[in-house]
Design brief:
The protein is mainly beta. The chain has one domain: TolB, C-terminal domain (Neuraminidase, 6 Propeller). It is 4% helix and 52% strand. The longest helix is centred in the first third of the chain and has 10 residues. The N and C termini lie close together (8 Å).
């Protein structure tokens, strides 16, 4: 069964699962492909106000950029000092937040001008970051997801479980129709998480999304989920393509 648009996806995840509560399973079908900068070690990916934003990592190569979807080229780009490893990023309200991996700080910028505002202390590793429109939602590579206010104070923590077992290495995050989508680091798996219970309601198998013919020795893992106008976009670290995809039931 092919599912077009987030309305169909929303209905799937809001309806109760068949009696047993079985986890739904999907694979992806490519709708369209776009160029992606192979220098981008993708950490955060999101749309806001019609623009595509991407944060990239690695010491000495960390950036935040606005990206032209059709060409994959950076329209604007700011680089970080080589002592910082940039991670997930998101805009909440008028502020852009960018996590760092081990440096225990979060950078804040004015969302419209990208003017630097402040550096805020952060007590855990930074991995993925998204928002439900009210709070920041962050991962730290564990099986936990943290809900934060705009000052980065933790309001709630959930543990993510699949069939009762913790799911570790939760990485890049995206909020899609009331659910948290998360890349599971080093795998081709995306999990769809109930934000109240932490229970994984669906698994999305993205194996084979980037064909072997497009891989090089520098190609890294799947990482990067973005949604816009009922469309889902996926990419990976140093991938040469960004894909618009459909979900297909397995």
């Amino acid at each position: 069964m092919r599912l077009r648009g987030l309305i169909a996806i929303a209905l799937l995840f809001l309806l109760p699962a068949c009696g047993s509560g079985r986890v739904k399973e999907y694979k992806v079908k490519v709708v369209k492909e776009y160029p992606h900068d192979t220098s981008s070690y993708t950490q955060g990916l999101f749309f806001h106000g019609g623009k595509l934003y991407e944060s990239t990592g690695e010491y000495g190569n960390s950036t935040f950029r606005t990206v032209d979807l059709e060409t994959g080229k950076a329209l604007t780009k700011m680089s970080f000092d080589r002592k910082y490893f940039a991670e997930g990023s998101i805009i909440l309200g008028d502020v852009l937040y960018i996590l760092t991996w081990n440096e225990k700080v979060v950078f804040r910028y004015d969302a419209s001008s990208l003017k630097y505002l402040s550096t805020v202390g952060y007590r855990r590793q930074g991995w993925g970051l998204t928002t439900d429109g009210k709070r920041l939602i962050a991962s730290d590579g564990s099986s936990k997801i943290y809900f934060l206010d705009s000052s980065l104070k933790t309001e709630k923590t959930i543990q993510v479980t699949l069939d009762g077992a913790p799911v570790r290495y939760l990485n890049e995050l995206e909020w899609i129709d009331g659910r948290i989508w998360a890349n599971v680091y080093t795998t081709d798996l995306i999990v769809v998480i109930n934000p109240s219970s932490g229970v994984v309601e669906a698994k999305i198998d993205c194996s084979g999304l980037l064909p072997k013919s497009l891989r090089s020795p520098n190609t890294d893992v799947l990482n990067g989920i973005a949604a816009r106008d009922g469309r889902i976009f996926l990419t990976g670290k140093r991938w040469p393509r960004l894909y618009e995809v459909e979900l297909i039931s397995k």
